[in-house]
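Milestone M4 deliverable, item 7.
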Amino acid sequence: MELAEWIAGRISKGKVLSIGSGLSFMEKVMHENYKSLEVHVQDYASVSLKWIQNVLPKNQIHFVGNKIQIDDFNIVFLSNVDYSIPKETLAEILNDIQNYMHPNSELIIMNTTTIFSDLKLSTIQKTKNIIKYILTILKLYSKGQFWGWQRTPEEYREILSESNLQFIEDGVIYPGGVKHYFIVGEKLKNI
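Output delivered:
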């Protein structure tokens, strides 16, 4: 709920698109509490959007693979989505998303998996990773299922740059006491 309020608080009125919306709880909150916003959702799995179909008008629900016909969103956001996307693919996706945005609109990425620069922690983590790698080669350790990527704020800034987005700001918010990193990029021109 706090994340929905934070996003909605960035604009007074306009169109918002949530990409990878999942069950769409935040989007439901925005739709019901911020009547000046036209909230749209997009997800990869139609089953994820089943619940929100009882809340939003049908023309505001989009499935990945179907072209969105609207090209003037004020804010597009991805919440806890990018961990599953390789860097190069994420940059391409962010570049494509700009087709839905008008100049000076914002693209926001939020997640709970960001790695913050801490030399001591980084050194410890690097040492652990080297040991795990050696043990994996010796077949003494199984790395298990790969779940995705953790990125640093610097990597996010680089991805925004590669996507032709102007870096605006980044930081941390604590909705529900959980640390969420966010980064905001701005579309500066039609691409």
